[in-house]
Design a protein that fits this description.
The chain folds into 2 domains: about 180 residues, Rossmann fold, CATH 3.40.50.150; about 60 residues, Orthogonal Bundle (Helicase, Ruva Protein, domain 3). The chain has 11 helices and 9 strands. Helix 2 links the parallel strand 2 and strand 3. It is elongated, with a radius of gyration of 20 Å.
Length: about 260
């Protein structure tokens, strides 16, 4: 059994069949893959078998040492089988990604630490034009919120903010007993694929504020939940008596455009 420890909220996957299934779910049409937080390398061992350029980003020094000791490809900086492979000791959340693969697009994968998974996805949104695909493991509840559709209880802030840029698929559920240490919750693997939206078609800052304001009081109707943003201003439309989980992304965009006119 590989040496493992819990770091930054991370639970390390030990089931190789599931690891291979995650890696096989990557299309990686760009020819470039970035693994975030490889830990003990359970995904890495299968990523190394693929033909794409591969970069690994790991913040933990002990994990870096373990990976280099375990995989000879990570010890030798020279090109391996006509492709680039490198291991970077950095904080993914602090990295500038524009030049990571020479300015080219890349896919992202990983067993994402539960306590920073949302931050990882918002980072990915920032670089959405060069990240067309993401396949990764997250907490099951987070995966459900990411992939949820309007009208469901799980549809919320994360659903709207991610789905405006990506199509999201809930691929499969993973039980806690395949991790070291076992988490108290189930996990799930998701796939994010860049959609056709290239322009926000509204004020993006106001869009985010509108989504967060309404969902922070999700039991209330839009008419009541939007009051902190409207103040004394009066606004009415066809969906003011609906709750935020009933609005599509397009409706939130239209709503934002209308609000901008009166704010």
């Amino acid at each position: 059994m590989v040496r493992a420890k819990k770091s930054l909220g991370q639970h390390f996957l030990k089931d190789k069949n599931i690891a291979k299934k995650i890696v096989d779910s990557l299309d990686a049409a760009t020819g470039n893959i970035l693994e975030v937080g490889p830990g003990t390398g359970v995904l890495t061992q299968f990523l190394l078998q693929r033909p794409e350029n591969l970069k690994l980003v790991e913040i933990d020094r002990e994990s870096i040492a373990f990976l280099k000791d375990t995989y000879s490809e990570l010890r030798d900086p020279e090109p391996v089988r006509d492709r680039e492979i490198s291991l970077l000791q950095e904080d993914f959340l602090e990295m500038e990604l524009d030049s990571l693969f020479g300015g080219n697009s890349f896919s992202v994968t990983g067993n994402f630490p539960y306590n920073i998974s949302s931050q990882i996805f918002f980072k990915i949104i920032k670089y959405r034009e060069i990240i067309p695909e993401v396949v990764g493991m997250v907490q099951k509840e987070v995966a459900e919120r990411m992939a949820s559709l309007p009208g469901k209880k799980t549809y919320g802030i994360l659903s709207v903010l991610l789905q405006r840029w990506y199509n999201i698929e809930y691929l499969f559920t993973v039980d806690g007993n395949v991790f070291i240490p076992p988490p108290k919750v189930k996990s799930a693997v998701i796939r994010m694929t860049r959609n056709e939206r290239r322009d926000m078609q509204c004020n993006e800052e106001l869009f985010i504020k509108t989504v967060k304001t309404t969902f922070n009081q999700r039991r209330k109707t839009i008419r009541n939940s939007i009051k902190p943003l409207l103040g004394n201003r009066i606004y009415d439309c066809s969906f003011m008596d609906l709750r935020p989980e009933q609005l599509t992304i397009s409706q939130f965009i239209d709503f934002t455009n209308e609000l901008e006119k009166i704010l």
